[in-house]
Amino acid sequence: MCSAYSTVAATKLTLVEVITSPARTAMLQKMLSEYKTQHPETEIEVISLPWGQAFEKLGTMMQSGQVPDVVEMPDTWQGLYASNNMLVDLEPKLKAWPNTANLTDKTLDMARASDGKANMVPYGFYLRAMFWNKKLFQQAGLSGPPKTMDEFVADAKKISALGNGISGYCMRGGVGGTNAWMMFMTTMNGSPAFFDKDGNSTLTQPGAIKGAQLLVDMYKQGGAPKDSVNWGFNEIVSGFYSGKCAMLDQDPDALIAIKNSMNPDDFGVAPMPVGPSGKAYPTIGYTGWSIFKQAKHPDDAWQLIQFLSSEANNLTWSKFVGTLPIYKGAENDPFYHSPQFAGWFTELNDPKYVPLTMPTHLKGWGYFNSVTVKESTQETLLGENDTTSMVEDWAKYLTKEQKAWMATQ
After folding, report:
1. Distance (Å, rounded) from C-alpha 47 to C-alpha 75?
2. Angstrom distance (rounded) from CA 236 to CA 231
3. What is the pLDDT of residues 6-37, one digit of tens each?
4. CATH assignment of 129-281+362-407, among 3.40.190.10, 3.10.129.10, 3.10.310.40, 3.40.50.300
5. Using an 8 Å Cβ cutoff, are 115 and 361 in contact?
6. pTM of the prediction?
7. Residue 289 in contact with residue 221, Cβ under 8 Å?
8. CA–CA dist 116, 121 (Å, integer)
9. Which of 126, 176, 246, 312 is 20 to 30 Å apart from 321, CA to CA?
10. CATH class of the region 11-125+284-349
11. Where can this protein be found (predicted)?
């Protein structure tokens, strides 16, 4: 009798999402409803954590024993949870999954980025490119987007000179601003390497400091809105589509809101401007699905991840949330043939652009990315610190982290 009941008792899975918006959660719930139709014995509770506090809130959940079965795992946290040995090794599961053969090499590389073993299935890639407002450029007498960093600075000045509260660049001074700082610093430094062979941070090299100074000067000299010191994702995107600022470095996920709010003829998406070396290093990020070792239902969790990561579901999800998909040949889908996507595919295919992967293998990267960079850049932008001191502090922290990681290899 008992065994008969246990076979029909509902399995309750918990899924935590951390990059949240009402539309995105609704889309996820729609996909999960389809899964529940196929698996009527499964219940799924979705816990949506707002991105600004998600890092701390997930940590609190874990400490109090509320361990989710499936977690949306950003690349920036992967190293922390992997190095603490908290994530399920998915290699045996990927070996047995027929879809693995059709995943791009980049997808599998990123799944294994932290310790050489797959501990997540990425669902897509976020690659930075430069949105530009054609109308504001025209008003400032500019004919096209900046191709170099010097042009980027000059264009921002010309556009800011239009007045009426218009600025050249939508700066992200709040949570999530790390990408821009690292991208500008490596591009001005002419190298995507975060460390030398001995594990010392390269961020204090003269070119890298120039890249950080470029952003500080742009803010202080009025090239970015004054309140952008506190801006997160929603503020920079609305700043762009409302015409408050004319340039925005962002991933394809920003395209969703921008397309809904602007005439497609009024904006373009260009590759990131190149630095003195003739190269640019647009950041490439990724997010995926992971299973914690303490999860109550790891096998059911893997079944759910396979469903979310199927070719059809991944394409639907990628189009909706604005990522580049994980399957070979996905770029042939007509959706990706709009002129707006050309900037991203140029970056993926032209050797001038080398996608920059953050050092997410570091245990302390999640904290550095979510807390340290936000607090220290805000101080510097507001004149409470100087750029060189800020960058030296970053380099000291990252060098210590890298040497600790090297010692375990």
Report:
1. 19
2. 6
3. 455 689 999 999 988 888 899 999 999 999 99
4. 3.40.190.10
5. yes
6. 0.79
7. no
8. 13
9. 246
10. alpha beta
11. Periplasm
The C-alpha atoms of residue 167 and residue 248 are separated, in whole angstroms, by 11
How far apart CA 337 and CA 266 sit, in angstroms, is: 18
Which residues, including other chains, have CB under 8 Å from residue 259's CB and lie 6 or more apart? 340
243: exposed, middle or buried (Cβ count in 10 Å: 0-12, 13-18, 19+): middle
Length of the chain in terms of residues written = 409
Q: Is 45 helix (H, G, I), strand (E, B) or coil?
A: strand
CB atoms within 10 A of CB 408: 8
For the chain, the structural domain boundaries read: 11-125+284-349, 129-281+362-407
pLDDT in tens, 170-228: 999 998 899 999 999 999 999 999 999 999 999 999 999 999 999 999 999 999 999 99
Measure the CA angle with vertex 342, ends 336 and 346; round to 5°.
120
Whether the Cβ atoms of residue 19 and residue 74 lie closer than 8 Å to each other: yes
Sign of CA dihedral 396, 82, 194, 366: negative
Q: Helix or strand or coil: residue 26?
A: helix
The rounded distance, in Å, linking the Cα atoms of 274 and 281 is: 8
Beta bridge partners of 127: 284
SS3 for 97?
Answer: coil
Q: Following DSSP, what letter does each residue of 300-362 receive, concatenated?
A: HHHHHHHHHTSHHHHHHHHHHHT-B-SBTTGGGSGGGGSGGGHHHHHHHH-TTB-PEEP-TTS
Place 330 in a pLDDT band, splitting at 50, 70 and 90.
confident
Q: How far apart are CA 288 and CA 324, in angstroms?
A: 12
3-state secondary structure of 268: strand
